[in-house]
Amino acid sequence: MIDPVRTRASLLASIGAPAADDVPLVDAADPRVATADVRLTLRGRRRDDLFAPLEFVLSERFAAVPRVRLVDDLLMPLKNALGNAQKHGNGNDPRKEIAVELFLAARGALVTITDEGPGFDTDATLSRLRNGETYFSNRGLGLRNLDRAASRVAWENGGRTLLLCYEAPCGGPRHSGDGGSDLDRVVDPAWMRAHLPAALAEADGSVGALESCRACPSARASGGARDIRYIVRLAAAGGGPPITRSLMGRLHATAAAAVADFAAARALHGTIATHRLRIPRPIARPVEEPRLALFEFHPWMSLADYLAHRGSLKAMTRSAGRVGRGLAVLHGARPDFVRPAAPMNRRRFRTLVGTAARNLRSLPDGADHVETLRRLAAPLVLARAPRGRPPVPIHGALGLDSVCLGIDRRFYLYRFEACRLGDAVIDLGAFAADLLWSIAAHHGNGAYHACLDQFLARYAAYGGPRVVREEIRSSTAFALLARLTHAPLPDGNGAGGLSAALAAL
Questions:
Q1: Which of 43, 302, 455, 472 is the most buried (most CB within 10 A)?
Q2: Pair (101, 188) in one structural domain
Q3: CATH code, 499
Q4: For the whole prediction, is pTM greater than 0.90?
């Protein structure tokens, strides 16, 4: 919230940070940023250029904080503040810079953001905001969003410097030490210095010398792979300022899965480039670790995180429509790969049902739930062929966590190791199942059906193969069964989530 009486000194004291009398760090890839009490300074002209390294540092530092809370309380306010500095402070003048200081301490972080604008009357503007009056002539909700955040916000320097103070709810950063030797190797600084420059040069032709680098593995596996975020600082050609780049890596369980993920993304990258949904640019697969696939993009929220952050039905339906449009483009693409799907036969289906039943034994009416899903999914499995539809390139494991929001404000379709030629209804049902599980229990059947209607309407409007509702329901039930073969149940919804999903289905 905006707390105009707070000063820099009082905010530093609230997070246990020492006075700023030391020499600051200037490199977000410096390993000291991960654990030590430090001051980091960055300069840039664009919001996204500054937000990328800051988001990396803060996400790593406060990995123990639930993601939605960190987005609401720190990352989104920071993004808004940087946007205000670029738009309102510097007037989008590309010649003007934004200076950022980041103080990291045991109990939180203080970010100061200084623009080169004329400043503004903070007291008068805050008074108009609190009285419900128009507080700026420009459009936007940046200041109102800052006031709603849990972080403390104040100004100094005549409004040219914003202070954003975040007090972490849990003590200290969390570091993953259970990755095993394979993961430890690809996040080791010496390994990265030896092999990342070659991977970048393979993609870009030539790159400057690697000055520093750091990696932050995700806390959980996704699709059988571990996601790894890399930040690298490269010397610029011609003696300019160093360049900081963000990469995403996926360390797969097998080299074959990495090959499939990388090849599908490379084939689709140039095909799917709508302004609604894109494919991240594949960079390289290092020869020294064939199970690692590298992509150049910087996601900071999954679609599940985004919907939890926004929370409104409007945001849910718009996002579902965006995915429906992108999926229609994917299914209409003609990429240069042919990897047919393995057919689902009766034996595999019985095994799937049996595993789901074992996982649901502890839930009330668990056996009845499995039988309901088996009955609904059976038409999909027993059908000899789709209804006149040729096989199309499908994602194969589509869900809310397979769609990511980048710092460029675009959504990206991600995680392609299961991509293959198959029936379009498989993707539709998989995404519908994730919507069902995530939305029905928390927002009701009406919200789920509104999202599903928009998803299918946009899919049809942009040329997706024709499917009927009965097929969608059968495919959705099949996808739910597949999710229930994993224990614990997705999102910890338990019996209540499953009952709500079945009722909506």
A1: 455
A2: no
A3: 3.90.1200.10
A4: no
